[in-house]
Specification:
Blueprint: E1 5-10, E2 15-21, E3 23-28, E4 31-35, E5 42-46, E6 49-55, E7 58-72, E8 75-85, H1 91-106, H2 115-132, E9 137-138
Parallel strand pairs: 1-8
Antiparallel strand pairs: 1-2, 3-4, 3-6, 5-7, 6-7, 7-8, 7-9
């Protein structure tokens, strides 16, 4: 069994990262889950949320927006619409997006065609704000 995972993260626009890590925690569609070296092969969907990976005691946080993850032979491939590391997030822009989504949702009900779009925008903004407050940390 290997003692490291290869983590590759890709959006339609760029390769976000390719690195060796100790573990990965992902926002699965049915709940958060972790991947360690030796994990069984897996293919599943991801929801809007926070992806965290650890290497040598350092935790790095990334806001991700829907996608897929494949785990095979100690390689974790993450394909998502967007991915932003904590230090890449524009906090003021995220707060402005949150305000726009909250304002739009006040005027919509669940039957409106734009309700799901604004609900997703709200969720993305909240995750970006949450992740932006996390800097690289050491330890557990």
């Amino acid at each position: 069994m290997a003692d490291k995972l290869t983590l590759e993260m890709v959006t339609p626009y760029r390769q976000v990262l390719s690195t060796e890590v100790d573990e990965v925690t992902l926002p699965g569609s049915v709940g958060e889950f972790g991947i360690l070296p030796g994990h069984t092969p897996l293919l599943t969907t991801l929801k809007i949320g926070e992806l965290t990976y650890r290497d040598s005691g350092e935790s790095i946080h990334v806001a991700v927006n829907w996608g897929y993850v494949e785990v095979e032979d100690d390689k974790v491939t993450v394909l998502v619409e967007t991915a932003e590391k904590a230090d890449e997030i524009d906090l003021e822009r995220a707060k402005a997006a949150l305000g726009r989504a909250e304002s739009a949702l006040k005027d919509l009900n669940a039957e409106d065609k734009d309700f799901a779009v604004m609900q997703a925008a709200l969720e993305r903004a909240l995750i970006r704000i949450q992740v932006s407050g996390k800097t690289q940390s050491r330890g557990h």
